[in-house]
Structures are given as C-alpha cells and as structure tokens.
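ok so i was messing around last nite and threw this chain in just to see what happens. nothing serious, just curious
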Amino acid sequence: MEQLNYKIELDREEVVTDSLIDSGKNSTEAVTDTSLFACERKMTDLEPNPIANREQPVTDHQLTTTNHKQLTPKLSWLKQLKFILPILGGIFLIFVIASLSIGVVDVSIFDFLRGNEDAVNVFVHHRIPRTVAVIVAGVGMSVSGVIMQTITNNKYVSPMTAGTLDAARLGMLLAFMIVPMTSLVVQGIFAFVVTLGLTLLFIFFVERIKVKSSALIPLIGIIYGGVIGSVATLIALQSDQGIQQLVTMLMGSFALTLSGQFEMILIAIPFVVISFIFANWFMLAGMGESASKNLGLNYRLTVMIGLVIVAIISTLVLLVAGMIPFLGLVIPNLVAIYMGDNIKRSLPVTMFVGAIFLLICDILSRVIMFPFEVPISLTVGVIGAVLFLVLLLLKRRKGSA
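result:
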C-alpha cells in the first residue's frame, strides 16, 4: 500500500511539473517547485535538522541531472503507449467487425461492401448506428469515471456510486412527466440540469465530511443514489407510462438504437476531447482545494467543468441506451494498475478499454439467447461486478504484502 501511495504521489508531482511548464514557467522554476513538493513530503517523516534546513546553492550540474530525471518517466510512459495502443487498436477492430457481423438478418460485411440492397439497409439503419453508440457509450462512461475518481481523489467513486446515474434517471422521468410533448432534445436538457444539480449536491456533502475514508464516500453515494432512485420510482408509479419509462431505463439496451435515434450520443464526443484538455487541472484539483489554489488553480471552476462533463455524458448515455452500471468504476481502476494515476497519459488507454469492454458485453448480450437479447445492463453488471471483486482482492493482497 505504501508503494501504491508513493506511485500516486510521483504521478501527481509529474502533473504539477507539466502544469507549471504549460503556464509559462521555465524549466528551472518547474524543477524547483517539484523539488519543494518532494521535500515537504519527506520532511514530515524526519526529525528537524537545522543543518539540513540551511539553503544550499543549486549548481548547473544538479539542475541538468534533475531535468534528465524528470524526462525519464515521460519517455517511459510514451514507450508504454506506443506498445499498448497498437495492441488495443487491433483488439478494438476485431470486436467492431464482430459487432457488425452479428444480427438476426443473415447478411455479412462482404454483402454490404458489394452493395447488396438488403445488407446496406441493415447496416446503415441498425448495425452501424448500434456499434457507434456502443463505442461512444463505453468511451464516455469510462472517461466520466476517471474524472470523478480524480476530482474526489477516491478510486471507488463513479457515476454509479455517486448517484449520478440515478439523478439522470430522475431527471428523465421528471422531463417525461412535466414536459411530455416536447422533443427529446428538450427532455435531455431538462434531465441534464437535474443530473448536474444533484451531482453538485453530492460533492457538497462530500466536501463537508471530516473523515474521508476510501470506503465511506462511495457508501454515502450509494445511499444517496438509493434515495434518488426511490423518489424516481415514486414518480413513475403515478402513471403506467412512467412505469414503462422507468423499466426501459433500468434494463438498458442498444436494441432500439437506429439511425435517426442514436445521433444524440455523438454530442458526448466533444466533451471527451475537453476532458483531455483539462486532464492536468483535474489532477491538481484532486490534491485538495488548498493545495490546488496555492498552485494558482481555480478549484471551483475545475470541479464544475468536470461535473458538467460527467453529467452531460451520463444523461446522453441514459437517453440512448439506459443505465449501464460498473463501467465508470471498473475500467479506470483496471487501467490505473498498468498506467498509473496520471490521467493525461492513461485516458487514451481508458477510452480503448472502455469501448472494447462494452463491445464485448453487447456481443454477449446478443448471442447468449440468440435471436433474443439480454439487457446490456445485466451483462455489464455481472461481468463488472466480478472484475470489481477481483480488483478488490488484488488491492488487498498488495496492501497485506
């Protein structure tokens, strides 16, 4: 556990250095600031030593050596990306082809490429939209999980354990009951506002908890989500259409993802790109409000940007496919084992793994009871729960070791 914590601190020091360099400081200033962080951490474990506290002149050789040490981790993670991204890209392509090839209608990709009319109709109106929706949903929910875990500095927080998915469900039900005759876009905006407001309320509660253990915050989030879910069920019971809407969202499925209905989920793509731009900001915000403010970061604005991204993506996925549990919880933790906690370098891998994972679950949902389909929420829930238990056991072994 000490080694894991030390690795997290190293990742954050690297992000602090990158942020300082991006903000206009030269390399000498960045080295000094990073060294101060390292010194502060080490001095807490040592007895006061007046000789060690004297200011020592920094030579050019020391600065050169420090710069070289800072560049080495960057080169190593670049090598990691160059090694793993082509592998993930190949696996991703295999499952995309498999997803396009599976369906009730007996047509293949070769029929589509030859211009067969039936094949073109099936692919254009159903299989391609469905596959694109699955990919975007997998990428979006994985990135949302990374953002929430980074901002709260807790590996067990995700849209599922923070009540965000339940808030989106309540928002959709309220939109369906209050503005039923409006377009799906208007209902989506209404649901987004409700989702963002309730997620901000959860963060407000978390910030005021004095004892912030890794298990307490997600436990509060699960209770909070349960309360929101109960309110949503109570509202749904007021009408038969409300119950039908609730059941549809809870089951989750890409079976009805057709051309003309899946395009809304594509709105999530720009927000995934924005998450790359603000990756270092999210890492600094995860260090705490006081530490991030000392580094010149607008903490409140950064948290708001992250929560807006999470709320929009969660609402869009709920609109198109329904609730997809565990995805934002398991995938970031799985990727962090290999790539570490610097989200700027782990986000590309997280996106690929999230898309591959949801493609696999969607394919299983279609073939288990072919020609019928198992709800995607059931498939993701079972596989995600097993993976999460495995991750917990691995962390427990590392902690005991």
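not much to say yet. The chain has 16 helices and no strands.
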